[in-house]
Design brief:
Elements: E1 14-19, E2 23-28, E3 32-37, E4 42-43, E5 46-47, H1 55-68, E6 78-83, E7 86-90, E8 93-94, E9 97-104, H2 107-114, E10 119-120, E11 123-124, E12 134-140, E13 143-144, H3 156-162, H4 167-190, E14 193-205, E15 208-212, E16 221-225, H5 229-235, E17 241-243, H6 245-253, H7 269-287, H8 300-318
Antiparallel strand pairs: 1-2, 2-3, 3-7, 4-5, 6-7, 8-14, 9-12, 9-13, 9-14, 10-11, 14-15, 14-16, 16-17
């Protein structure tokens, strides 16, 4: 198994390339974006040293399914999925905030709550809650989109006052966020899962708001298994979950939280294979479909050649 941790393509019409924590995004004529979802994995805003085979394919294909399942709520950027690891879409001007929505007190929100805070992003959290308890209704806790380093919590009022997003657009983003989360929760419930929290990114093109990037993947979302949730909650036990949180927990247990001076623990082949298995498990659980490895490619060079060929053919058809 070979992980794709770096790409360096030169497509026809390519203007620039942006390398994110996980994605390599190619700007084609300022009209299209080619988003290659690599096998890189990040946690605590740090890219870990080892890639995770098939992770990029899992993320790309889950996102494509959920983008297709929400087109009646709002348009999205996706135009084609020419390769298991690639989505090609329209280039939009992104909003400079990420819309995080939480149905349960978990992860970052729980860590803040446990530290004594009862307000997050200007939103009040009820007293007396326990970890992984459901909120009376989902709360929206946006963050800034950092070009590098950590995204920062920010309130609705701060976003509007600073001019990051207009009030009209922001309130529309909130409505879209709640509607997409509701749809994702319904789909997850049918598959025996609970969609705990997630984040969405939006952009604008020709005055229209589009849903962008990935949605409802294990990188952007947290899922619990519904079976046994109430019993585990009552006993104060950890929930059985499918998300990237297990990677964060493994790192924390080995003394790493992305803080200065901390060393990333050794990612052995067994650790890497275990993470691959968890990503595939989530794919199969959330889609109800058997995961099929993309193509017959096996080496990194063959996979990169496959991607280049598939994307080039796609771009010819978009001309």
């Amino acid at each position: 198994m070979n992980a794709i941790t770096r790409t360096d393509f030169a497509f026809d019409g390519q203007i620039s390339k942006y390398t994110g924590k996980v994605r390599d995004v190619y700007n084609i004529k300022d009209e299209y974006l080619v988003m290659v979802v690599s096998d890189r994995i990040s946690a605590f805003d740090v890219v870990l040293p080892e890639g995770i085979p098939y992770k990029g394919q899992v993320l790309n294909q889950i996102a494509a399914k959920f983008l297709d399942a929400t087109t009646d709520i709002l348009p999205n950027w996706k135009l084609a999925v020419p390769d298991p690891m690639v989505t090609v879409g329209r280039k939009c001007e992104p909003f400079k905030v990420e819309m995080v929505i939480r149905g349960y007190l978990s992860g970052h929100a729980w860590r803040e709550y446990k530290a004594g805070k009862r307000t997050i992003c200007g939103v009040e959290m009820p007293e007396g809650m326990v970890e992984n308890q459901q909120f009376p209704e989902p709360i929206i806790t946006p963050t800034t989109k950092a070009a590098a380093g950590h995204d920062e919590d920010i309130s609705k009022e701060e976003i509007i006052a600073s001019g990051l997003v207009s009030r009209e657009d922001y309130e529309q983003l909130e409505r879209y966020t709640r509607a997409i989360f509701q749809r994702g929760s319904e789909i997850a419930a049918r598959m025996g899962l609970i969609l705990v929290d997630t984040k969405y990114e939006f952009g604008k093109k020709d005055g229209v708001i589009y849903l962008m990037d990935e949605i409802h993947t294990p990188d952007s979302s947290r899922y619990f298994y519904a079976d046994g949730y109430a019993e585990r909650l009552a006993r104060g036990e950890h929930q059985k979950q499918l998300s990237k949180e297990f990677v964060r927990e493994w790192l924390m247990a080995n003394g790493f939280q992305g803080l200065p001076g901390q060393q990333i623990p050794d990612m052995t082949p067994e650790i890497v294979a275990g993470i691959t298995d968890r990503y595939i498990e989530l794919y199969e659980q959330i889609t109800g479909e058997k995961f099929v490895e993309g193509g017959e490619s096996s080496t990194s060079e063959e996979i990169l050649h496959r991607i280049e060929k598939n994307v080039s053919e796609c771009l010819k058809q978009l001309k």
